[in-house]
Design goal:
With 316 residues, this protein is α/β, with parallel strands linked by helices. The protein is built from 15 helices and 7 strands. Strands 1-3-2-4-5 form a 5-stranded mixed beta sheet, with helices on both faces. The N and C termini lie far apart (65 Å).
Length: 316
């Protein structure tokens, strides 16, 4: 009896999955893609059994579409079984992915892409979905995908998603969400364009300047500017090894390490100064350290480790 009861949810889950993920053909293309896209975006995945990248991409698409809970559908087309359709769609290589909405293609890409890009792609399409009246985009989903892309190093995808959120808000006469402003500024920071990062931050309302997301980016920009003229890190490591009492040398090393994004190394160098002389240079090392913590964020592992060590030094 328990086995029979337990079988029902599995059947239901399989049925729900079949509604959003299907194998397509030239005969079903109009119904499953063009007609279906009048109410919900439909992703078409052109693939082949012999295609290695397809085996990487398709499971990622299925996972992201399933997670979208019906906001997007997926139709998979085997080009070897549907050569005429592949020719009509001008498919020259696989995997090739097109997205349709309201009967027309609205997005697409070729080749296997990282999971963060897949999530961002599906999030953008989810924003087009309608539920009776025109629905607004799922901002949190897009922001989550953008932040994941940025964290993985995919700056271009992140910038595109953050930019779309900002544009959507501005078209509605609203200020972009602080997460979008901070995220887009971080994208410019990642490419070394400090002026553009500062310009994006200027979009934040003045009364939100102390918001953790905005303050963190401001701190990161300050650190990037401070480290722009920093010396060679390896040379400075040798310098302080030879003269460990040279606190100015340790500070210069910290800035050099920040310039190459070695946050842990920079934290250690600043803590070395504080341990040797707490108030050195009008408390410059501790102030710089606090800026590093702010740039990383309060829950970053490097921040937590650094704060513990700072406390042990100050209260030893």
């Amino acid at each position: 009896m328990s086995d029979l009861i337990g079988a029902r949810p599995r059947a239901s889950a399989e049925t729900a999955r079949a509604d959003v993920i299907k194998d397509g053909s030239i005969e079903s293309f109009e119904r499953d893609v063009l007609d279906a896209s009048m109410s919900v975006p439909v992703i078409v995945d052109f693939w082949a059994t012999w295609c290695g990248p397809c085996k990487q991409l398709t499971p990622g698409l299925e996972k992201a579409v399933t997670a979208a809970s019906g906001a997007v559908r997926l139709v998979k087309i085997d080009i070897d079984k549907n050569k005429m359709l592949a020719t009509q769609m001008r498919i020259q290589s696989v995997p090739t992915v097109y997205a349709f909405f309201q009967g027309r293609p609205v997005d697409g890409f070729q080749g296997a892409i990282p999971e963060s890009e897949i999530k961002a792609f599906v999030a953008r399409l989810s924003a087009l979905a309608k539920d009776g009246a025109q629905a607004g985009p799922d901002l949190d989903a897009i922001l989550d995908a953008a932040e994941a892309a940025l964290k993985s190093g995919d700056v271009a995808t992140a910038a595109d998603a953050f930019g779309q959120i900002a544009q959507y808000a501005e078209e509605g006469g609203e200020t972009p969400p602080l997460r979008a402003i901070a995220g887009l500024a971080r994208c410019h920071l990642a490419t070394g364009d400090l002026d553009a990062a500062r310009a994006i931050l200027a979009l934040a309302p003045p009364d939100k300047s102390s918001d953790p997301a905005i303050a963190s980016v401001k701190a990161a920009i300050a650190l990037a500017g401070d480290g722009a003229q920093a010396g060679d890190a390896e040379r400075l490591k040798k310098k302080v090894a030879a003269k460990p009492d040279d606190l100015a040398g340790w500070f210069e090393l910290a800035e050099a390490l920040l310039a190459v994004s070695d946050m842990d190394g920079a934290i250690d160098a600043l803590l070395e100064i504080i341990a040797r002389e707490r108030g050195w240079n009008e408390d410059a090392a501790r102030q710089k350290l606090l800026t590093v913590f702010e740039a990383l964020g309060p829950m970053d592992p490097s921040t937590l480790r650094g704060r513990r060590r700072l406390s042990s030094i100050l209260f030893a």
